[in-house]
Amino acid sequence: MAEGxxxxxxxxxxxxxxxxxxxxxxxxDLKKEEDHFFLVQSKNxxxxxxxxxxxxxxxxxxxxxxxxxxxxxxYEKYGASVLKGGVELxxxxxxxxxxxxxxxxxxxxxxxxxxILSILWKSSISKRKLFEEINLxxxxxxxxxxxxxxxxxxxxxxxxxxxxxxxxxxIPADLITQPxxxxxxxxxxxxxxxxxxxxxIFISKHIIPDFVYExxxxxxxxxxxIYSDKRAMNTIFKAxxxxxILRNE
Length: 249
Known about the structure:
- Helix content is 26%, strand content 29%.
- The chain has 249 residues and is α+β, with helices and mostly antiparallel strands.
- It has one domain (3-241).
- The chain has a seven-stranded mixed sheet with strand order 7-8-14-9-13-12-11, sandwiched between helices.
Protein backbone atom coordinates (compact mmCIF):
# COMPACT_ATOMS: atom_id res chain seq x y z
CA MET A 1 0.00 0.00 0.00
CA ALA A 2 1.46 3.33 -1.08
CA GLU A 3 2.04 6.19 1.31
CA GLY A 4 1.31 9.83 0.57
CA UNK A 5 -0.79 12.85 1.52
CA UNK A 6 -4.49 12.12 1.94
CA UNK A 7 -6.59 14.61 -0.03
CA UNK A 8 -9.15 14.91 2.78
CA UNK A 9 -7.24 15.05 6.09
CA UNK A 10 -3.99 16.32 4.47
CA UNK A 11 -1.91 13.93 6.58
CA UNK A 12 0.77 11.59 5.32
CA UNK A 13 -0.59 8.07 5.64
CA UNK A 14 -1.02 4.79 3.81
CA UNK A 15 -3.39 5.44 0.92
CA UNK A 16 -6.19 3.23 -0.40
CA UNK A 17 -5.67 1.31 -3.63
CA UNK A 18 -9.20 2.04 -4.77
CA UNK A 19 -11.57 4.93 -3.99
CA UNK A 20 -14.81 5.04 -5.96
CA UNK A 21 -15.71 8.58 -6.95
CA UNK A 22 -19.44 7.89 -7.30
CA UNK A 23 -20.57 5.32 -4.70
CA UNK A 24 -21.12 1.81 -6.01
CA UNK A 25 -24.68 1.58 -4.72
CA UNK A 26 -25.79 4.25 -7.21
CA UNK A 27 -24.84 1.86 -10.01
CA UNK A 28 -26.89 -1.01 -8.61
CA ASP A 29 -30.09 -0.31 -10.53
CA LEU A 30 -28.12 0.36 -13.71
CA LYS A 31 -26.80 -3.19 -13.85
CA LYS A 32 -28.85 -5.58 -15.95
CA GLU A 33 -28.83 -9.34 -16.14
CA GLU A 34 -25.27 -9.27 -17.49
CA ASP A 35 -24.17 -7.03 -14.59
CA HIS A 36 -23.33 -4.07 -16.85
CA PHE A 37 -24.43 -0.50 -17.35
CA PHE A 38 -23.79 2.20 -19.94
CA LEU A 39 -21.63 5.31 -19.77
CA VAL A 40 -22.17 8.39 -21.95
CA GLN A 41 -19.06 10.55 -22.19
CA SER A 42 -17.94 13.59 -24.13
CA LYS A 43 -15.29 13.25 -26.84
CA ASN A 44 -14.36 16.23 -28.99
CA UNK A 45 -17.58 17.93 -27.83
CA UNK A 46 -19.63 15.00 -29.11
CA UNK A 47 -21.30 12.48 -26.85
CA UNK A 48 -20.88 8.79 -27.33
CA UNK A 49 -22.18 5.71 -25.58
CA UNK A 50 -19.01 4.02 -24.45
CA UNK A 51 -20.61 0.62 -24.01
CA UNK A 52 -21.10 -1.76 -21.16
CA UNK A 53 -19.12 -1.31 -17.96
CA UNK A 54 -18.99 -3.55 -14.92
CA UNK A 55 -17.89 -1.12 -12.23
CA UNK A 56 -17.75 2.58 -11.50
CA UNK A 57 -14.82 4.93 -11.92
CA UNK A 58 -12.22 4.91 -9.13
CA UNK A 59 -8.93 6.59 -8.31
CA UNK A 60 -5.81 5.19 -6.64
CA UNK A 61 -3.94 6.75 -3.73
CA UNK A 62 -6.11 9.78 -3.05
CA UNK A 63 -7.53 8.92 0.40
CA UNK A 64 -6.25 7.28 3.55
CA UNK A 65 -8.07 4.29 5.02
CA UNK A 66 -9.66 6.29 7.83
CA UNK A 67 -11.07 8.98 5.55
CA UNK A 68 -12.24 6.42 3.00
CA UNK A 69 -13.64 3.76 5.33
CA UNK A 70 -14.83 5.82 8.26
CA UNK A 71 -15.55 9.42 7.27
CA UNK A 72 -16.83 9.07 3.68
CA UNK A 73 -18.23 5.58 4.13
CA UNK A 74 -20.50 6.82 6.92
CA TYR A 75 -22.12 9.40 4.64
CA GLU A 76 -22.36 6.98 1.73
CA LYS A 77 -24.11 4.37 3.87
CA TYR A 78 -26.66 6.93 4.96
CA GLY A 79 -27.14 8.14 1.39
CA ALA A 80 -27.81 4.55 0.34
CA SER A 81 -30.32 4.08 3.14
CA VAL A 82 -32.26 7.14 1.92
CA LEU A 83 -32.13 6.54 -1.84
CA LYS A 84 -32.37 2.75 -1.77
CA GLY A 85 -34.33 2.13 1.42
CA GLY A 86 -33.27 0.99 4.86
CA VAL A 87 -34.09 3.97 7.04
CA GLU A 88 -37.53 5.04 8.27
CA LEU A 89 -38.60 8.30 6.66
CA UNK A 90 -41.81 10.27 6.30
CA UNK A 91 -42.62 10.27 2.59
CA UNK A 92 -45.50 11.58 0.53
CA UNK A 93 -46.28 12.74 -3.00
CA UNK A 94 -47.37 16.35 -3.41
CA UNK A 95 -48.12 18.78 -6.20
CA UNK A 96 -47.65 22.56 -5.93
CA UNK A 97 -48.04 25.04 -8.80
CA UNK A 98 -48.07 22.20 -11.30
CA UNK A 99 -44.86 20.62 -9.99
CA UNK A 100 -45.03 17.09 -8.57
CA UNK A 101 -42.51 16.03 -5.98
CA UNK A 102 -41.74 13.47 -3.31
CA UNK A 103 -41.53 15.15 0.06
CA UNK A 104 -39.25 13.42 2.56
CA UNK A 105 -39.22 14.10 6.29
CA UNK A 106 -37.08 12.82 9.18
CA UNK A 107 -34.03 12.79 6.92
CA UNK A 108 -30.71 13.46 8.68
CA UNK A 109 -29.67 16.89 7.43
CA UNK A 110 -25.98 16.56 8.19
CA UNK A 111 -25.47 13.04 6.83
CA UNK A 112 -27.42 13.45 3.60
CA UNK A 113 -26.10 16.88 2.69
CA UNK A 114 -22.51 15.79 3.27
CA UNK A 115 -23.19 12.64 1.24
CA ILE A 116 -24.16 14.77 -1.78
CA LEU A 117 -21.25 17.17 -1.27
CA SER A 118 -18.81 14.27 -0.88
CA ILE A 119 -19.61 13.05 -4.41
CA LEU A 120 -18.96 16.53 -5.76
CA TRP A 121 -15.75 16.89 -3.75
CA LYS A 122 -14.36 13.50 -4.81
CA SER A 123 -15.16 14.35 -8.43
CA SER A 124 -13.15 17.54 -8.05
CA ILE A 125 -10.05 15.82 -6.63
CA SER A 126 -10.25 12.94 -9.09
CA LYS A 127 -7.69 12.57 -11.86
CA ARG A 128 -10.09 10.55 -14.03
CA LYS A 129 -11.02 12.06 -17.38
CA LEU A 130 -14.71 11.45 -16.74
CA PHE A 131 -14.64 14.17 -14.05
CA GLU A 132 -12.53 16.72 -15.90
CA GLU A 133 -15.29 19.38 -15.85
CA ILE A 134 -15.53 19.27 -12.05
CA ASN A 135 -13.08 21.77 -10.60
CA LEU A 136 -14.16 23.42 -7.38
CA UNK A 137 -11.15 25.70 -7.08
CA UNK A 138 -11.13 27.40 -3.65
CA UNK A 139 -14.41 25.66 -2.75
CA UNK A 140 -12.60 22.30 -2.78
CA UNK A 141 -10.89 23.07 0.52
CA UNK A 142 -14.05 24.58 2.03
CA UNK A 143 -16.21 21.55 1.19
CA UNK A 144 -13.44 19.14 2.19
CA UNK A 145 -13.31 20.69 5.66
CA UNK A 146 -17.10 20.51 5.95
CA UNK A 147 -16.96 16.78 5.17
CA UNK A 148 -14.01 16.05 7.45
CA UNK A 149 -15.45 17.99 10.39
CA UNK A 150 -19.06 16.85 9.91
CA UNK A 151 -20.30 20.43 9.56
CA UNK A 152 -22.69 20.91 6.60
CA UNK A 153 -23.30 24.62 7.13
CA UNK A 154 -26.66 26.28 6.55
CA UNK A 155 -29.10 24.95 3.97
CA UNK A 156 -28.47 28.07 1.88
CA UNK A 157 -24.80 27.10 1.53
CA UNK A 158 -24.25 24.85 -1.50
CA UNK A 159 -27.96 23.97 -1.96
CA UNK A 160 -28.89 21.26 -4.46
CA UNK A 161 -31.80 20.02 -6.55
CA UNK A 162 -32.68 16.38 -7.12
CA UNK A 163 -34.85 15.45 -10.10
CA UNK A 164 -36.04 11.98 -11.02
CA UNK A 165 -37.42 10.75 -14.30
CA UNK A 166 -37.90 7.14 -13.19
CA UNK A 167 -41.64 7.82 -13.46
CA UNK A 168 -41.14 7.92 -17.26
CA UNK A 169 -40.46 4.30 -18.17
CA UNK A 170 -39.67 5.11 -21.82
CA ILE A 171 -36.62 7.26 -20.97
CA PRO A 172 -33.39 5.23 -20.62
CA ALA A 173 -32.27 4.92 -17.01
CA ASP A 174 -29.48 2.34 -17.33
CA LEU A 175 -26.75 4.92 -17.84
CA ILE A 176 -24.46 7.40 -16.16
CA THR A 177 -23.37 10.58 -17.93
CA GLN A 178 -20.20 12.59 -17.67
CA PRO A 179 -20.71 15.17 -14.87
CA UNK A 180 -20.98 18.68 -16.24
CA UNK A 181 -20.24 22.20 -15.11
CA UNK A 182 -22.70 24.88 -16.22
CA UNK A 183 -23.69 28.47 -15.50
CA UNK A 184 -27.02 29.54 -14.09
CA UNK A 185 -27.78 33.27 -13.89
CA UNK A 186 -24.09 34.05 -13.52
CA UNK A 187 -23.45 31.33 -10.96
CA UNK A 188 -21.82 27.91 -11.23
CA UNK A 189 -23.63 24.59 -10.96
CA UNK A 190 -22.36 21.04 -11.18
CA UNK A 191 -24.64 18.40 -12.63
CA UNK A 192 -24.68 14.62 -12.26
CA UNK A 193 -27.02 12.17 -14.00
CA UNK A 194 -26.99 8.62 -12.64
CA UNK A 195 -29.59 5.90 -13.13
CA UNK A 196 -32.65 8.06 -13.66
CA UNK A 197 -31.73 10.70 -11.06
CA UNK A 198 -30.34 14.17 -11.74
CA UNK A 199 -28.36 16.05 -9.08
CA UNK A 200 -27.60 19.78 -9.51
CA ILE A 201 -25.44 21.49 -6.90
CA PHE A 202 -25.20 25.29 -6.73
CA ILE A 203 -21.76 26.54 -5.77
CA SER A 204 -21.23 30.26 -6.19
CA LYS A 205 -23.05 33.03 -4.35
CA HIS A 206 -24.79 34.48 -7.40
CA ILE A 207 -28.56 34.56 -7.75
CA ILE A 208 -30.11 31.23 -6.80
CA PRO A 209 -33.86 30.83 -7.49
CA ASP A 210 -36.19 30.58 -4.51
CA PHE A 211 -37.41 27.16 -5.60
CA VAL A 212 -33.90 25.76 -5.02
CA TYR A 213 -34.01 26.86 -1.39
CA GLU A 214 -37.53 25.46 -1.13
CA UNK A 215 -36.61 21.99 -2.37
CA UNK A 216 -33.05 21.45 -1.10
CA UNK A 217 -32.49 19.63 2.17
CA UNK A 218 -33.19 21.86 5.16
CA UNK A 219 -32.18 22.02 8.80
CA UNK A 220 -35.68 20.80 9.72
CA UNK A 221 -34.71 17.47 8.07
CA UNK A 222 -36.97 17.77 5.02
CA UNK A 223 -36.13 17.31 1.34
CA UNK A 224 -38.08 17.42 -1.90
CA UNK A 225 -37.24 15.22 -4.90
CA ILE A 226 -38.89 16.61 -8.03
CA TYR A 227 -40.69 14.36 -10.49
CA SER A 228 -39.53 15.85 -13.75
CA ASP A 229 -41.93 16.22 -16.65
CA LYS A 230 -40.63 15.12 -20.05
CA ARG A 231 -39.97 18.60 -21.38
CA ALA A 232 -37.91 19.66 -18.36
CA MET A 233 -36.09 16.34 -18.36
CA ASN A 234 -35.37 16.70 -22.05
CA THR A 235 -33.58 20.00 -21.36
CA ILE A 236 -31.41 18.29 -18.74
CA PHE A 237 -30.84 15.24 -20.93
CA LYS A 238 -29.75 17.27 -23.94
CA ALA A 239 -27.34 19.32 -21.83
CA UNK A 240 -25.82 16.19 -20.27
CA UNK A 241 -25.80 13.77 -23.21
CA UNK A 242 -26.63 15.62 -26.41
CA UNK A 243 -29.63 13.29 -26.80
CA UNK A 244 -33.13 14.57 -27.61
CA ILE A 245 -35.56 12.22 -25.89
CA LEU A 246 -38.58 14.03 -27.40
CA ARG A 247 -37.30 13.94 -30.97
CA ASN A 248 -39.68 11.21 -32.11
CA GLU A 249 -42.73 12.38 -30.18
